[in-house]
Write a structure and sequence with these properties.
This protein is of the alpha/beta class. The protein has 12 helices and 11 strands. The relative contact order is 0.11.
């Protein structure tokens, strides 16, 4: 199945969907209309049961070059540009990142080239990030533009790369290679360029085979764990197990384990 969009392409094959940022001539610069189309896809995925994993990637030689700065400059003087950008972030960009992080469908970012600025934030907001060896992450906000990193970058990078590395990367604005990002533990894997999409599909197939509710339950548990004490999190885990063990999916998983077969989840 394939749906028609202007700024992205979206296809589904069985339980796996692929969303491709599709403005290769502009290095997939993330405009407001592109963000609206991404959000439309994410909303549609939450309302159905067939697709159980999503791959997010870019067309051409870049994953995403970030916000369209040329578009921002057309919004008037500096104050008008600032107000317009603020409104766009509050109404479109910030909700997009939250919807991506909270998606019930697990998301794999397959970073096929440079992911810069907001494009890096978009990629790193996915549940699993793999990158081609030629890819990289670039955060030019502070040293080149005099603004703070956005779309969650100041929240994501310290958690993914550690405070010292995140602070230096954001202050210096230097390119982080895919290999470096993997060695720092910020992404799942760096793979050869021609292995990127095949590897992403393998991971998506693994995710699609899991119980449908498993990903969102795990995301919520990790989010809770980030703001609770150990004692509080232990209680949270016990309460969730009380609910989840009663489900048919757990019973099927146990039966499959005992019968030495692969589980089949609804």
């Amino acid at each position: 199945m394939q749906e028609s969009f202007r700024y992205i392409s979206f296809t589904t094959e069985g339980a796996i969907a692929t969303l491709t940022l599709n403005l290769p001539d502009k290095l997939n610069g993330m405009s407001g209309p592109m963000q609206a189309e991404i959000r439309q896809v994410l909303a549609g995925l939450q309302a159905q049961r067939e697709v159980r994993a999503l791959i997010l990637t870019g067309a051409g030689r870049a994953f995403c070059s970030g916000a369209d700065l040329g578009d921002i400059r057309q919004k008037g003087d500096g104050r008008e540009q600032a107000e317009s950008t603020y409104q766009a972030m509050v109404e479109q960009s910030n909700p997009l990142i939250l919807e991506l992080r909270r998606s019930a469908i697990p998301v794999i970012a397959a970073v096929n080239g440079i992911a810069a600025g907001a494009g890096a934030s978009l990629a790193l907001a996915a549940d699993i990030v793999i990158a081609a060896r030629s890819a990289g992450f670039l955060m030019p906000f502070s040293p080149r533009l005099g603004i703070v990193p956005d779309l969650g970058a100041t929240w994501l990078l310290p958690r993914l790369f550690g405070d010292a590395r995140a602070r230096a990367a954001l202050l210096l604005g230097e390119r982080i290679s895919a290999q470096q990002a993997a060695e720092w533990g910020g992404i799942w894997a760096c793979v050869e360029d021609d292995e990127l999409l095949p590897r992403a599909r393998e991971l998506a197939a693994q995710l699609a085979a899991a119980p449908r509710h498993a990903a969102v339950e795990l995301k919520q548990a990790l989010e809770q764990g980030g703001r609770q004490s150990l004692a509080e999190q232990l209680q949270y885990e016990a309460e969730r197990q009380r609910e989840l063990i009663a489900r048919d999916e757990f019973q099927e998983g146990v039966a499959a384990f005992l019968e030495k077969r692969a589980p089949i989840f609804p």
